[in-house]
């Protein structure tokens, strides 16, 4: 979540769909973003200045307003927003659970734990594999397909 809270305007490369982030331990990294996320980010950036009037000195991407003054969103505020809106859609999730879901979906799409490792900023594939646990439905469906292939 701190990567999101610390995100600055100059960290975003729209053309390349790439965002520069600072990981744990002050490690610089870059992550790709999905076309859908990029589209949403572009829409937000179009209204950011008119909604928050941050001035030139405030470079954080995600802002809130307190007493008519733009401020960077805090880690806690981001956690609260994620929980509020996921709950409103009937599936309360934390930012960590969203990260886990992204990793799982990426793994299910590509079957490449190295890609997951790089996207999450892990230095070990073993750590990234923790995010790629298969759900019971996935295992059940796979076993069902195995049985059909033998018939």
Automatic annotation (TrEMBL):
It comes from the Bacteria. InterPro entries: DNA_brk_join_enz (IPR011010), Integrase-like_cat_sf (IPR013762), Integrase_catalytic (IPR002104), Tyrosine_recombinase_XerCD (IPR050090). Its main location: cytoplasm. One of its GO terms (biological process) is DNA integration. GO terms for molecular function: DNA binding. It holds the Pfam family Phage_integrase. Residues 1-144 form the Tyr recombinase domain. Signal peptide: none annotated. It is found in: Cytoplasm. One of its GO terms (cellular component) is cytoplasm. Keywords: DNA integration, DNA recombination. PANTHER family: PHAGE INTEGRASE-RELATED, TYROSINE RECOMBINASE XERC. This is Tyrosine recombinase XerS.
């Amino acid at each position: 979540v701190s990567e999101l809270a610390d995100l600055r305007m100059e960290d975003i490369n729209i053309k390349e769909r790439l965002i520069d982030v600072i990981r744990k331990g002050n490690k610089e990294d870059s992550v790709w973003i999905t076309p859908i996320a990029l589209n949403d980010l572009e829409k937000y950036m179009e209204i950011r200045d008119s909604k928050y009037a941050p001035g030139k000195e405030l470079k954080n991407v995600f802002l809130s307003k307190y007493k008519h003054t733009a401020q960077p969103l805090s880690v806690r505020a981001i956690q609260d927003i994620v929980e509020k809106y996921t709950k409103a859609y009937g599936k309360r999730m934390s930012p960590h659970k969203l990260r886990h879901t992204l990793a799982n979906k990426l793994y299910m799409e590509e079957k490449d734990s190295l890609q997951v490792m790089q996207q999450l900023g892990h230095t070990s594939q073993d750590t990234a594999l923790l995010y790629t646990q298969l759900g019971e439905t996935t295992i059940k469906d796979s076993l069902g397909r195995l049985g059909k292939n033998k018939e």
